[in-house]
Amino acid sequence: MSDADFPLLRMKGVGKSFANGVHALDGLDLDVRAGEFLSLLGPSGCGKSTALRLIAGLGRQTTGGIAWRNGVMPQVGFVFQEPTLMPWADVAHNVYLPLRLSGVSEREAEPRIGAALEGVGLAQFAHAYPRELSGGMRMRVSIARALVTRPPLLLMDEPFAALDEITRFKLNDDLLALARGLKTTVVFVTHSVFESVYLSSRIAVFSGRPGRVVETIEVDGPSVRDAEFRLSPQFAESCRRASAALDRASGRVLA
């Protein structure tokens, strides 16, 4: 396989065990294709977040290997379950953080910060503090911070799980528009069948712990998703397939 044909990332036979005896992953095989929106779907505690952290380099696998196209890990943006904002800094300075750590001056960073906040609809809140924002707005800041460096790979660990459904739907739409505009590859952890189908071009279904991918689903849907897609037969059928795969992975059915 040539470098051009190799996926952006390949995980082969990856296992992860912790010192407390927990075996989070075992025999995980997963390819991440450049430009796709890939959801990792599975029950809570099945190792999805552990897999995401291994991709980000926030830990080392116990067994198996992780290979990058051309042998080089690209710049990665990471959005955690909680916004993890600095409470003493305003919105603009929270978004500035990864640029500051990269040695970019505040003056040079200003237009990039402004563009990132514009992208998440928070340009007018640049000088607000996290305590003054709603939960959905704080998550928007977190997404802007992850995207301000325009990373080719964005990793997201159940970022919308704690939000109400209306806010979640709006952020789903905004995320798809941002990823499409920046041509960013996204790996998104969720335990919501509906969210995984709405967002994804492909879904990797995880078994219970120790986690591994037991089924992958190509989502049949338009490249641009909207409320109409949520009401379509395509969406309903993809949700049915994903739900059945999740049941099989969880051992709730025999076949």
List the helices and strands and how they pair.
Blueprint: E1 9-17, E2 23-32, E3 37-41, H1 48-56, E4 63-68, E5 76-79, H2 91-101, H3 106-119, H4 135-147, E6 153-157, H5 165-182, E7 185-190, H6 193-199, E8 202-206, E9 213-218, H7 227-230, H8 233-250
Give a structural overview:
- Strand 8 (202-206) and strand 9 form a beta hairpin.
- 35% of the residues are buried.
- The chain has a 6-stranded mixed beta sheet with strand order 5-6-7-3-8-9, with helices on both faces. Strands 2-1-4 form a 3-stranded antiparallel beta sheet, with helices on one face.
- The protein has helices at 48-56, 91-101, 106-119, 135-147, 165-182, 193-199, 227-230, 233-250; strands at residues 9-17, 23-32, 37-41, 63-68, 76-79, 153-157, 185-190, 202-206, 213-218.
- Helix 2 crosses helix 3 and helix 2 runs parallel beside helix 4.
- The model has no long low-confidence stretch (mean pLDDT 92).
- By secondary structure, the chain is an alpha/beta fold.
- The protein folds into 2 domains: 1-68 and 152-255, Rossmann fold, CATH 3.40.50; 87-150, no CATH class.
- The radius of gyration is 18 Å and the shape is globular.
